[in-house]
């Protein structure tokens, strides 16, 4: 669960920003997601020294560098297992993982499903723009099959896209929601709700890449509040997903599973002991 700040002065969103200036393309939705992260942390008054944001590879995975909290930049698709390992060994920390649709649902797809299944108390925020922006505009797992602008898929992918909310529900995520970068205040409220809910929380944020998908400028007009309230019944949530047009905004599912918290005796080891344990025989 979240750890509140021990400071007497109330922290503001700017207090959670680092001095590193973002280098995203002009108009990128990730700017607003960064704002949502800082607003959510301020709303919860999290102690920056007890927060860790982990990411993988991609435009969205730059997030840790722009935050004034602990961060870890993992390899492609492996941010979730790093986050799980950290949260299990340091349950006192607030652990959040940030990534994109390529990093999270392609090479990291199996880790995503296993993280939902394990239900460790952490939050996963995916900025979904349905394209590989960092590598100049290829189709991603969530790209629609008839998108014909990608250089590698001039006739479309012709395969069904990955549906993150459906997979998260089927795999056992304890909190599932979708937000929009066009509404950073709304996204901040969803992230706050996700962090405060026990177990594995998944938040998909529709974050346009107007450089390689300029048509996504229209997302601001297309997204709309989900016509239903959140449910704790996975069967009900599954039926509601059958009518989801992939632009419903809001919380879908708030489960009641007990988070996975293995019991073990922590112990301190010296660097020499660790080196000896991993030394290979000649």
Which class in CATH terms?
Answer: Alpha Beta
Overall average residue pLDDT: 93
Which residues sit in consecutive blocks of at least 5 with pLDDT less than 50? none
Distance between the amino and carboxyl termini = 46 Å
**CATH architecture annotation name:** 3-Layer(aba) Sandwich
Proportion of residues in extended strands: 15-25%
Instruction: Give a quick account of the main beta sheet: strands, pairing sense, barrel closure.
Output: 8 strands, mixed
At the third CATH level, what is the topology name?
Rossmann fold
What sort of overall outline do the alpha carbons produce when their principal axes are compared?
Answer: globular
- Summarize the helix and strand pattern as letters: HEEHEHHEHEHEHEHEH
- Count of alpha/pi helices: 9
Q: What is the number of E strands?
A: 8
């Amino acid at each position: 669960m979240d750890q509140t700040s021990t400071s007497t002065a109330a922290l503001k969103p700017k207090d959670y920003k680092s001095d590193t200036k973002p280098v995203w393309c002009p108009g990128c939705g990730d700017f607003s997601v960064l704002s949502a992260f800082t607003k959510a942390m301020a709303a919860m008054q999290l102690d920056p020294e007890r927060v860790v944001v982990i990411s993988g590879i991609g435009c969205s995975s730059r997030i840790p560098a722009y935050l004034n909290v602990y961060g870890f930049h993992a390899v492609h698709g492996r941010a979730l297992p790093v986050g799980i390992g950290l949260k299990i060994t340091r349950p006192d920390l607030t652990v959040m993982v940030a990534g994109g649709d390529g990093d999270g649902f392609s090479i990291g797809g199996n880790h995503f499903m296993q993280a939902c299944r394990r239900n460790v108390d952490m939050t996963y925020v995916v900025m979904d723009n349905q394209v590989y922006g960092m590598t100049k505009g290829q189709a991603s797992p969530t790209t629609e099959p008839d998108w014909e602008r990608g250089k590698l898929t001039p006739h479309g992918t012709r395969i069904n896209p990955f549906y993150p909310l459906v997979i998260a529900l089927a795999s056992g995520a304890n909190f599932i929601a979708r937000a929009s970068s066009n509404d950073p205040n709304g996204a901040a409220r969803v992230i706050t709700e996700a962090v405060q809910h026990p177990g594995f929380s998944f938040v998909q944020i529709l974050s346009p890449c107007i450089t390689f998908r300029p048509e996504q400028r229209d997302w601001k007009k297309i997204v709309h509040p989900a016509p239903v309230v959140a449910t704790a019944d996975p069967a009900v949530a599954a039926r509601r997903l059958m009518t989801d047009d992939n632009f419903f905004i809001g919380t879908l599912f708030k489960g009641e599973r007990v988070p996975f918290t293995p019991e073990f005796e922590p112990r301190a080891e010296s660097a020499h002991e660790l080196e000896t344990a991993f030394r290979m025989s000649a």
